[in-house]
Amino acid sequence: MLKLFSVPQISYMATSPALSNKKIYPHFFRTIPSDLNQAHAMLEILKQFEWTYVSIVYSDTEYGNHGYETLTSLAYLYSICFSTPQRINKEHFKNEDYDTVIRTIANKTDVRVVVLFAEKSTTLRVLDAAKRLNVGTRFLWIGSDSWSSSNHRDFADLDSSRMGQEMAVLEGALVVQPLSRQLSGFDKYFTNLTLEHEKINPWFREFWQEYHRCGINDTEVMIREEQDLCCWRCRKCGLYQYKVNDQRCEDCLLGTRPTKDSKRCDSIPEEYIDYYSPWAIVAMVVASIGILLTIYVWFIFRIYGETPVIKASGRELSSLLLLSILASFLMTFAIVAEPITETCAITRFGIGFCYTLCYAALVTKTNRIHRIFNNISHSPRKSRYTSPKSQLLITGILILLEVIVNVILLIMVPPRVKHIYPTRDTKIKICQGLDDRSYIVSLIYPFVLIGHEKEKEYEEEKEEEEEEVKEEEEEQVKEGRRIEIEEKEKEEEDPEE
To answer: Which residue ranges run through the membrane (predicted)?
Structure first.
């Protein structure tokens, strides 16, 4: 199954030679030698002591069958003959069947050496049968790696009243065991593991309970405050804490909250304005209407662009003003979009830029009209820098200042997304600058242009008031002269009468 999902598997006891086939088991590894090495070792022992005629008993399992096949396939290289092989079905064999195996070897062959290639349980039952039949020193046993030194103790415990016969059966026995050594620190590390290790080893809980000989209550997430292995006083982790190990809880970071089992912290779902938010939909509808109206006005300008009215209004600056209005409406879609680095950059740059584009055109246009009318009253010569190219150049210079400011701000503080947490269970995604109002810096220059425009309007209103006062004074002077003339005419008429 693991092969299907390309999951590596490491075994500490699987010795089958078949597992060495990397074409079939490409992701299997082991820390123990293959049975092929064990078979060579057994055959080397037989050859060394010139035991060339031997019997073999093996279990009807993958371990036993592979061991038997490996031994028999290599036997000719060592001039070894295996006589009367006995296969044991450990699932169905009873004591009588094991006794039959021993009798067959004892009665039908002249062998003295028996190779045992079987699992621990099968090996013990074969040796127990030899003990029951009082074989004594008739056979010399050579066992595979499943029969370690601990098996001797297990075998001896089967019937302690017959210790002499047991030792007679085991006398001279040889066991092939892979070379191993104690790994420094491993036992301490492994026995000190806590239940947190269950996250990466789902079978660890079973080992932990067996090793410490105690059960585990899964109904609540607890940590222990006393150091007894199986009995301790427990307390619950906090509402926003997760269990680090059996002794400690820690707070979840902002923007996260503990899972139901409190074993880790999961991220809180983000909240943000996007195109599906009700407020965003209203804003986009209004912006769309504004875009359509702006495009409609632009078409009117194109159609009647050569008329005196359009020319007198300044086609170039009017077109630039329409462009700024269109860009301002389009900015709505960037502002209500999901906050990402790109939309944050567009928003920070675009808000101030659109206002600057609009007010720079208005300031230039107002200044042009003001200078033209002032020049008419003072000089018959045409005002300088009032041509369309000059006006566009002046507007471009005014806009360039805003562009420089915005670029510097973007370099000093690169656009990025951040999160704010109004409550412990709320995580709002915004563009950096919206929380501390730093984006207002890009609006300072447009406000200056607005102030300049207002100042121009004030000056024009003041001049209009002065003109009105002069006109009133002139009217009063004219009225006074008219009255004087009428009085003189009356005086001239009276003497004649």
So the answer is: 276-299, 320-340, 346-364, 392-413
Q: Is residue 293 part of a domain?
A: yes
Q: How far apart are CA 396 and CA 409, in angstroms?
A: 20
Determine the structural domain holding residue 195 and report its residue range: 191-267
Asked whether residue 247 falls in the same domain as residue 297, the answer is: no
In a domain, residue 186? The reply is no
Query: Do 394 and 457 belong together in one domain?
Result: yes
Strand 241-245 to 248-251 pairing: antiparallel
Distance CA 116, CA 96 (A): 18
Residues 454 and 406 in one domain: yes
Same-domain pairing of 298 and 259: no
Going by C-alpha positions, the residue among 61, 186, 184, 68 that lies closest to residue 119 is: 61
Length of the chain: 497
Nearest 5°: the CA angle 44, 48, 77 is 45
Domain membership flag for residue 134: yes
What's 218's DSSP letter? -
Residues 285 and 215 in one domain: no
Question: How many Cα neighbours within 13 Å face the side chain of 411?
Answer: 6
d(CA 67, CA 217): 44
Provide the residue-wise pLDDT of the chain in tens; the chain has 497 residues. Answer: 777 778 888 888 788 888 888 888 888 898 888 888 989 999 999 999 999 889 999 999 888 998 999 999 999 899 898 888 999 998 889 889 999 999 998 887 678 899 999 988 888 899 889 888 887 668 889 998 887 644 444 554 545 555 555 566 677 788 888 877 777 788 788 778 877 788 888 888 887 777 766 666 554 555 555 444 444 566 778 888 888 877 788 888 888 989 888 888 999 898 888 888 888 899 999 999 999 999 998 888 888 878 887 777 677 788 888 888 999 899 999 888 888 888 888 888 888 888 888 888 888 877 776 666 665 555 555 556 567 788 788 888 888 988 898 888 888 888 888 888 888 888 888 888 776 667 777 778 777 777 665 555 555 555 666 666 666 666 766 766 777 776 676 666 655 55
Residue 281 has a CB neighbour count (10 Å cut-off) of: 12
Residue of 56, 58, 11, 63 whose CA lies nearest to 35: 63
Same domain, 232 and 325: no
The number of distinct structural domains making up the chain is 3
Residues facing residue 143 across a β-bridge:
116, 175
Please report, for residues 274, 324, 422, 432, the alpha-carbon distance to residue 344 in angstroms, rounded to integers and kept in the order given.
Answer: 13, 20, 21, 8
Q: Which two tokens stand for residue 186?
A: 């491993």
438 and 320, same structural domain? yes
Strands 417-420, 265-267: parallel, antiparallel or unpaired by DSSP? Answer: unpaired
Confirm if 59 and 117 have CB atoms less than 8 A apart. yes
> What six digits make up the tokens of 353?
């830029």
Distance, CA of 456 to chain centre? 56
CATH label of the domain that carries residue 59: 3.40.50.2300
Q: Both tokens of residue 87? A: 């296969």
